[in-house]
From TrEMBL:
Organism lineage: Bacteria, Pseudomonadati, Thermodesulfobacteriota, Desulfuromonadia, Desulfuromonadales
GO molecular function ontology, one term from the record: phosphoenolpyruvate-protein phosphotransferase activity
One GO term describing the cellular component: cytoplasm
Reactions catalysed according to its record: L-histidyl-[protein] + phosphoenolpyruvate = N(pros)-phospho-L-histidyl-[protein] + pyruvate
Protein known as: phosphoenolpyruvate--protein phosphotransferase
InterPro entries: HPr-like, HPr-like_sf, PEP-util_enz_mobile_dom, PEP-utilizing_PTS_enzyme, PEP_util_AS, PEP_util_C, PEP_util_CS, Phosphohistidine_dom_sf
Organism, scientific name: Malonomonas rubra DSM 5091
UniProt family annotation: Belongs to the PEP-utilizing enzyme family.
Length: 822
């Protein structure tokens, strides 16, 4: 435990606000050699993403995880403010306990501090005392206010699971906050039991009171309708490090463009949504305020108005669908077809008309019923369903505009390039943004898998999401730097930082231009080993784009674009024409066509797919195709017909058993004979452990393997790669994933077939080098990465890559792998 002395206690302070209080307590830690002065800014920055108010007049400010290197040693300082200072609305603080945590030595002090939270007499005494020893005695646990262990709880009916706190510093403020955030997503009661005491899992103070240090085991208890789900999510969160590791990864990713700020007023971290670096003024996005009358006298007229408004909204949505489809493809535009379906909901229409019959106006009734549904979705335990609340609100506003008596404010149209900040953006909002005027996009809510994030990436706008409500308080005109690669928004950067960020962006552009100028050179290493670099594409026109970007073929054609956003499946002739057009663009380069890979996670009306609790574990990929042989045969016939026009290979997705493979090959042979085509190479995606561990058997039945690292990682790690809190842990550079790939490569070499990788790892610099070192023959990636990866491979020796790959296989964690240099 830490030893406190009087130099760390400041009595009788008078401050103008929270920022000054944090700076004063931080200065105490600086003067006593615990932190660098720069860590004080990090303590202020932390307030933007986490409320450090502990309760009952006490706050515990601390810095951001990525600034740990600024801590010299673990220490705690206390600032007493007898008159109190406003911390957040409704919160007054008299004791500011500043924390610099390099180890878990401070946990006991925190535990003792939480014991006085429910002792107002002790807190009142400490906030007024003239003797610093009084505060030292309480924090050290020697006297006063230390409550006894909590009484034993009746845990009848609770489900339980035991977990180990794996973080380096135990259950201190940051991981405890993360735990509370996860627990609060569920309605179930959650408790944490440790050393005979029990704390409320939704209370930061209650958790800190337990004093759990690194390596200790705790038992989690949950009771309620979603108790099992809560326990599963909390266990996953604890096993993944309660956010500590993922935050470190965010820092590491920032280094890719070799830029870091030196002096900024405030750092707001979020989730990476779209890459890029930009500097400019902040502009808040504000929706128009739609005003409607509450009551109406003519129900028939109101119902007619409602019908006309819905019809007009459908026309708007169809026009928007056509526009986005032309710019970004059917897949990204499909959400607007789903919006049209919202408007056809008979239950919604009936409930609105019921309110109209009760005397309400169409606008009032529509808005009330939409808001009820939005609120219900926002409370849903399924994060993806909760994210659809924004879509429903978007649809509701479209209709409401046609019913409005008054619309105040002008539509949002920036007149200069800006970094746009919003609570969240609907797909319609994002699709209508002009990339020439939007330098970057930062939202308080949303998620990296939201439709808005997807469309932002397609428009090439740097974006971060889920940055917290504080971003909405940023004044228009505030100069900021948005870093979509690191997931950070930097406010009030110094002129030096603005200049250096612009230089970094320019240097990155120049490097990309040089790589692009040499894009047609093959990826031949310095010791004459060639790696084929090809592209992943998802629509017809991208074939030509890939060739122009330097790709040596198409390693993955996602054929889903042909099947989504329509009412009927594409016929054989339509598919054949698309494949033939792509082969013409490739002019002899290979085209690997992945057969339909779709499941319950996609909305395809004509397939009538049932909702699934775990769509990634359900009827998808080859399973769906084998269950719908006519759909599958139609696609296979189109592929074989197109094979007469160029070099085509067939790739089967989500194969898990030899029986599935055999059945698919039988159907492929049937289709080939029907159209009179020559045989083509048939390979499979390696996406599940069952195939990887039996790769030696599968290798005898196929012509090639292509490893889908995104899915393989989520199945190996048992982490949903779209999970809002755990997705960052699904890292394809984890040694377990690399060992799976190594197993596949060795089996392929033994059988004399080739191996490609078409997941995200192939387009990552370190990933590409390690894959080449493991013996992967082909790397397939998104088009913008082709030139850079080819340049990377031309600057290494394959022998060095092989040595590096062997080092990676011996690592015990993904952290160790990412520290490898080449």
């Amino acid at each position: 435990m830490l030893n406190l002395d009087k130099e760390l206690i400041v009595l009788g302070a008078q401050v103008a606000g929270k920022k000054e209080a944090i700076e004063l307590v931080g200065d105490v830690l600086v003067r006593n050699g615990y932190i660098d002065a720069a860590y004080v800014a990090s303590m202020n920055a932390r307030e933007a993403v986490a409320n450090t108010f502990l309760g009952n007049g006490i706050a515990i400010p601390h810095g951001l995880p990525e600034d740990r290197e600024l801590i010299k040693k673990t220490g705690v300082a206390v600032l007493q403010i007898p008159q109190g200072v406003a911390w957040n609305p409704g919160e007054t603080v008299c004791l500011v306990v500043g924390i610099a945590a390099k180890s878990d030595e401070h946990i006991t002090i925190l535990t003792n501090l939480t014991h006085v939270l429910d002792d107002p007499d002790t807190i009142s005494r400490l906030s007024q005392t003239l003797d610093p020893q009084d505060i030292i005695n309480v924090l050290s646990g020697s006297v006063g206010g230390i409550s006894k262990a909590a009484p034993e709880m009746d845990l009848t009916g609770f489900e339980s699971v035991e977990v180990a706190i794996t973080g380096e510093h135990g259950l201190h403020a940051r991981p405890a906050t993360f735990f509370v955030d996860v627990a609060s997503e569920f309605s179930a009661d959650v408790y944490v039991e440790f050393d005979g005491r029990t704390g409320n899992g939704k209370s930061l103070a209650s958790l800190l009171k337990l004093g759990v240090t690194a390596g200790q085991k705790v038992r989690l208890h949950a009771k309620g309708k979603d108790g099992k789900s809560a326990l599963a999510a909390l266990k996953d969160a604890v096993d993944a490090g309660l956010g500590e590791e993922s935050e470190e990864k965010m820092e590491a990713s920032q280094l890719e463009h070799c830029w870091e700020p030196k002096s900024v007023g405030r750092i707001i971290p979020g989730f990476k949504a779209s890459p890029g670096l930009a500097t400019g003024p902040i502009r808040q996005f504000v929706h128009e305020r739609i005003i409607v009358e509450a009551n109406a006298k003519d129900p028939a007229h109101e119902k007619s108005s409602l019908s006309q408004a819905i019809a007009a909204a459908k026309v708007n949505l169809q026009n928007l669908y056509d526009e986005v489809r032309a710019k970004a493809g059917a897949g990204k535009a499909a959400i607007f077809r789903a919006h049209i379906a919202f408007l056809d909901d008979p239950e919604l229409r009936a409930e609105v008309e019921q309110l109209i019959n009760a005397g309400k106006s169409a606008g009032f009734a529509w808005r009330q019923m939409i808001e009820e549904r939005v609120h219900a979705l926002e409370q849903h335990n399924d994060s993806l369903l909760a994210a659809r609340a924004m879509d429903l609100r978007d649809v509701g506003r479209r209709v409401l505009k046609h019913l409005a008596g008054t619309i105040s404010d002008e539509p949002f149209v920036p007149t200069e390039p800006v970094i746009l900040v919003a609570e969240d953006l609907t797909p319609s909002d994002t699709a209508n943004l002009d990339p020439a005027l939007i330098l970057g996009l930062c939202t308080a809510g949303g998620g990296p898998t939201s439709h808005s994030a997807i469309i932002a990436r397609s428009l090439g706008i740097p974006a971060i999401v889920a940055a917290g409500p504080s971003v909405q308080e940023i004044a228009d005109g505030t100069i900021a730097i948005i870093d979509g690669d690191a997931g950070n928004l930097y406010l009030d950067p110094s002129r030096e930082d603005q200049d250096s960020a612009e230089l970094a962006r320019t240097a990155l552009d120049e490097m990309r231009n040089q790589e692009f100028n040499h894009r047609f050179k093959p990826a031949i290493t310095l010791d004459d080993h060639r790696v084929e670099v090809v592209a992943n594409i998802g629509k017809s026109e991208e074939a030509e784009q890939a060739v122009n970007a330097g790709a040596e073929g198409i390693g993955l054609l996602r054929t889903e674009f042909l099947f989504l956003g329509r009412e009927t499946p594409p016929d054989e002739e339509e598919q054949y024409q698309h494949y033939s057009d792509m082969l013409e663009s490739l002019n002899g380069l290979p085209l690997i066509i992945r057969t339909l890979d779709i499941g319950g996670d996609k909305e395809v009306s004509y397939l009538d797919l049932p909702a699934e609790d775990n769509p990634f574990l359900g009827e998808r990929g080859i399973r769906l195709c084998l269950n719908r042989p006519e759909l599958f045969l139609t696609q296979l016939r189109a592929i074989y017909r197109a094979s007469k026009q160029g070099l085509v290979r067939i790739m089967l997705p989500m194969v898990t058993t030899l029986e599935e493979l055999a059945a698919a090959k039988r159907l492929a042979e049937k289709a080939r004979i029907e159209v009179g085509a020559e045989p083509v190479e048939i390979g499979i995606m390696v996406e599940v452990p069952s195939v990887a561990v039996m790769a030696d058997v599968f290798a005898k039945e196929v012509d090639f393997f292509s490893v889908g690292t995104n899915d393989l990682t989520q199945y190996v790690m048992a982490i949903d790669r779209l999970h809002p809190t755990l997705a960052a842990q699904a890292d394809s550079l984890h040694p377990s994933v690399l060992k799976m790939i190594d197993m596949v490569v060795r089996a392929a070499d033994e059988a004399g077939i080739w191996v490609g990788v078409c997941g995200g790892l192939a387009g990552e610099p370190l990933g590409a080098v390690l894959l080449a070192g493991l013996g992967v023959h082909e790397l397939s990636m998104v088009i913008p990465s082709v030139a850079a990866i080819k340049a990377q491979l031309r600057n290494i020796k394959i022998e060095d890559a092989r040595k590096l790959a062997q080092q990676a296989l011996k690592c015990s964690s993904v952290k160790q792998v990412r520290k490898l240099s080449f």
